[in-house]
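Batch job 17 of 40 flagged for manual review because the log was empty.
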Amino acid sequence: MEKNLIRDALAESIGTFMLVLIGAGAGALNAGLPTVAFAHGLILAGIIYTYGHLSGAHVNPAVTLGLLVGGHVKVRRALFYWVAQLVGATLAALFIRLLIPVDAASAILTSVGETKGSLTRAYLGSALAIEFVLTFILVSVVIQAAVLKKAGTSAGLAIGVVLAACIMFAGPLTGASLNPARTFGPALVGGGLLDYGLLYMVAILAGGAAAGYIQNLLFKDA
């Protein structure tokens, strides 16, 4: 087995748990768009600086797929990471559902932070296109800033800022997932996996794969 693969997969699971707990938790508590965006961006930056030296801190199956397509990770590692990421995301959504008390009178906690917005039901095709494009942007930044080390020690900050910016734009429209695990866990626990979640995951993974291909084809040696 590839060296330290179990350890690195565990780091991916913990990191994804952290991302979904903080990001989806902020959404579930109706914290407001700026708060939700910065909650995602800040926790992602922290995760990258915490686990980047171990697993690369993908915490996102689309990132892992982009790196697989670009030749930066092997298939076995990608498979372990995908399982770990989905498990971490699901545990975080369960934590939000089961362990945060709900005030029935004020209905503070009305969801588990599912990634859906105004376009999800009425204009699902538009929602999927937005998720594809924004995931392409995010994964491209990850590859250039972190994998190819173009941003040096500022890589985590750059990636976190881009995620926050994407959520500020598309959060109201699609939920701005950009992460199949971020969609999977809350959709599974919240009951929307078969409604919109699987299609979101396909579009997001396609965006990550496209980014991995384009970055490897055109910009790897820049």
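Reviewer: the log was empty due to a logging misconfiguration, but the result itself is present. DSSP finds nine helices and no strands in the chain. Unflagging and moving on to job 18.
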